[in-house]
Design a protein that fits this description.
It is a single chain. This protein is mostly helical and about 170 residues long. The protein is about 75% helix and about 0% strand. The protein has helices at about 5-25, 30-35, 40-60, 70-95, 100, 110-125, 130-170. Helix 4 runs antiparallel to helix 6. The model has no long low-confidence stretch (mean pLDDT about 90). Keywords: Membrane, Transmembrane, Transmembrane helix.
Length: about 170
């Protein structure tokens, strides 16, 4: 691993953080209730992964564009980040409910979690960065795990509402 500024990592982080900053003012109304019930181990894994990925993305010059046969990995990682932006555009145009936030995108479940993790995973493979690979793995377990937990709760609540509606119809 070579230390130095990574303009590719910086670009990926910009693509990651810009919509998240906008989201911080456009959260679903009941998001806080779900966040309170998050698994603490997954939260720690997510936070450590976020800090590690951010630092490594900026400081690992191996992630920058270079000649070689792995350019397809970088291109595919970038395309996943473009899909991530599309995911956010769709969310911001929606009613901004928890259901909207956790809708799949073109068959990709919990796309808001899966797409950036997959993109940074490919970026780690492109740069042949074991520390980045480990950090992304930690981030992925925590971040995707939390999002899957929320999606499961949303589905359970929707099922309960449907059952209640059926009971009142009888």
């Amino acid at each position: 691993m070579h230390f130095g500024f990574s303009y590719v990592g910086f670009l990926f982080l910009l693509m990651l953080m810009a919509p998240n900053l906008i989201w911080s003012r456009n959260k679903p109304a009941d998001y806080a209730a779900y966040a309170k019930r998050e698994n603490k181990v997954l939260q720690w894994m997510e936070r450590i992964g976020q800090i590690s990925v951010t630092c490594l993305a900026l400081l690992c010059s191996d992630l920058n564009i270079k000649e070689g046969g792995r350019f397809a990995l970088l291109l595919f990682a970038f395309l996943l980040m473009v899909l991530y932006e599309i995911y956010w555009i769709r969310y911001f145009k929606s009613g901004k409910t928890m259901g909207d936030f956790y809708r799949s995108l073109w068959g990709i479940p919990v796309a808001g979690a899966v797409l950036p993790v997959a993109a940074f995973l490919l970026l780690a493979l492109y740069g042949r960065s074991l520390p980045m690979l480990l950090a992304v793995t930690l981030l992925g377990i925590g971040h995707i795990g939390i999002h899957l937990q929320h999606r499961k709760e949303i589905r359970a609540a929707a099922n309960a509402r449907e059952m209640q509606r059926r009971d009142t119809d009888i």
